[in-house]
Design brief:
The structure is a homodimer of 187-residue chains. Chain A is 27% helix and 27% strand. The first copy, chain A, is α/β, with parallel strands linked by helices.
Chain lengths: 187, 187
């Protein structure tokens, strides 16, 4: 199993955005949509051995966590708009204290970063100042285009996350996920 | 300089598609849009040392080649729709026998695969049956989601292209570009 956790501090948490202008109306759900497709799609299908948690802390209704389960996902298309529509459905689903299915393979829960407590260790935090990436199991934690807040960085440190970097160039969240997968694929 | 060439056999070559349904109306301009953003965008800007050639062989007006020049590109956003709009503008520009600018850093020309004659050698063709990737200069040639035709594979062989593979999992064009960049970044 490969586990990713992406933290979004800005994506709207009520799903009230326009699919005709995703970057301009959603708090950049496009960033998260691309991370979802990077996490699951290969040329010929869906990676069944992956789970992705998106911790949504943006306005107006945080926190919510959306969970994507590779083995249960259906109809995940590579284009941004289709995936943003799935995010929208999840954010419009009433989140309970336990996981509630919005569409097949996608669930939502009223939870913030504490969701990490139940994820596989060790934790790796993608960070420009991190050490080298050694492909191994655990949970890979990534920020969105704005990165983590200082408080979130501190809580990741407290959780024992090891900071890792994928190279000298700072990349987008979805690009980092592609590189982690490739590292794990070629171990 | 890093040079990529992507071959699309299906994207509409007249630019007559709807930005509201890119995958459904454009012959998958979304695939090419994602390849453009992978080729040029990092977390903090545009890779100035990159050129991308998209050889467009789809209906109804082939061949056309669109050239993206990193050092001249402006306003490249990471979302698919904005980039598809730039592709649309290029495909609606009358292509001459020499490069014609459609928007800053983007040019179009009436040319097919023969554009390769002027690109830096050696040529590397991404292929599932290829040998290992050794990061080095030259031109990296990729297909779209449908891959190359047998005839195109043969002409790449004739051009002396070395077939390379990035790992055991077959990936999308944009994902391959991310991996090639990272390989070159970390040499």
């Amino acid at each position: 199993m490969r586990t990713f956790l992406a933290i979004s501090n800005v994506m709207r948490t009520d799903g009230e955005f326009s699919l005709k202008d995703i970057p301009g109306t959603s708090g950049r759900a496009d960033v998260i949509a691309r991370s979802v497709t990077s996490a699951f799609l290969t040329s010929h299908g869906i990676r069944a051995d992956v789970e992705l948690y998106v911790v949504c802390l943006g306005p107006p209704d945080p926190p919510k966590t959306i969970r994507f389960i590779g083995s249960e996902l259906k109809h995940l298309n590579p284009d941004e708009r289709t995936t943003a529509s799935l995010l929208q459905k999840a954010l419009r689903t009433d989140p309970g204290g336990s996981w509630t299915v919005s569409t097949p393979g996608i669930q939502v829960k009223r939870s913030g970063l504490e969701v990490l407590d139940n994820l596989p260790k060790p934790f790796f935090l993608l960070s420009e100042d991190g050490g080298p990436f050694r492909p191994e199991g655990g949970t890979y934690v990534l920020g969105d285009h704005r990165g983590l807040t200082e408080e979130q960085m501190a809580s990741m440190d407290s959780a024992g996350a090891e900071r890792i970097s994928l190279g000298p160039v700072s990349l987008h969240t979805d690009q980092c996920i592609v590189l982690i997968h490739n590292g794990l694929d070629t171990v």
